[in-house]
């Protein structure tokens, strides 16, 4: 639950497959198997989405578990989108074996009307604002904050949340750390 995956810390083994993946009972903007999450994460996601709905904010699950093989395709897609520029792709997509999505502990969230899905403007949507203010109460952290690229290796992703459990999420808030690397005293991972 507290594993740190980054450009210096690949999955081990590289094609790691999490056990106990389940489909969370929340609105989905993606199909199985990419909506699956680890059991503990799925339960927390359900509580999170229910609390948002109580506040009148509609969330959807845009991307959950991604296999090693899926990440090969995802990364290749972003390299192609960037005209073969791997440095540009590396700022926004992990290479296979280095993605948090492979752990089953991370998910991309969207607003139910599809506004600003996987875009920087998601931060300004009701869903983005609600997540930023409340996700920690359910054991989630914003994994790639703006301005932390030198530590996390990724430009800001206001939609990518990671389950770390309540203890770590609350501790980070209390101590004012915004990355897992800082919280656990690990080296920055700006590159591979
Ligand atoms: Zn993500």
Automatic annotation (TrEMBL):
It comes from the Bacteria. Residues 36-165 form the D-alanyl-D-alanine carboxypeptidase-like core domain. Keywords: Carboxypeptidase, Hydrolase, Protease. GO terms for molecular function: carboxypeptidase activity. GO terms for biological process: proteolysis. SUPFAM superfamilies: Hedgehog/DD-peptidase. InterPro entries: DD-CPase-like, VanY-like_core_dom, VanY/YodJ_core_dom, Zn_M74/Hedgehog-like. It holds the Pfam family VanY. The keyword Nucleus does not apply. This is D-alanyl-D-alanine carboxypeptidase. It comes from Arthrobacter subterraneus.
């Amino acid at each position: 639950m507290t594993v740190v995956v980054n450009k210096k810390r690949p999955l081990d083994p590289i094609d790691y497959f999490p056990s106990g993946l389940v489909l969370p009972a929340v609105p989905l903007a993606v199909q199985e198997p990419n909506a699956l999450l680890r059991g503990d994460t799925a339960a927390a996601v359900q509580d999170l989405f229910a609390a948002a709905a109580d506040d009148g904010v509609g969330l959807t699950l845009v991307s959950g578990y991604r296999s090693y093989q899926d990440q090969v395709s995802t990364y290749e897609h972003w390299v192609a989108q960037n005209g073969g520029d791997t440095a540009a792709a590396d700022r926004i997509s992990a290479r296979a074996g280095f993605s948090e999505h492979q752990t089953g502990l991370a998910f991309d969230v969207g607003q139910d009307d599809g506004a600003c899905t996987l875009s920087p403007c998601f931060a300004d949507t009701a869903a983005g604002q609600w997540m930023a203010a409340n996700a920690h109460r359910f054991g989630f952290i914003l994994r790639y904050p703006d301005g932390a690229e030198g530590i996390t290796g990724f430009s800001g992703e206001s939609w990518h949340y990671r389950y770390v459990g309540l203890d770590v999420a609350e501790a980070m808030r209390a101590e004012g750390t915004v990355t897992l690397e800082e919280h656990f005293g690990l080296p920055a991972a700006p590159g591979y």
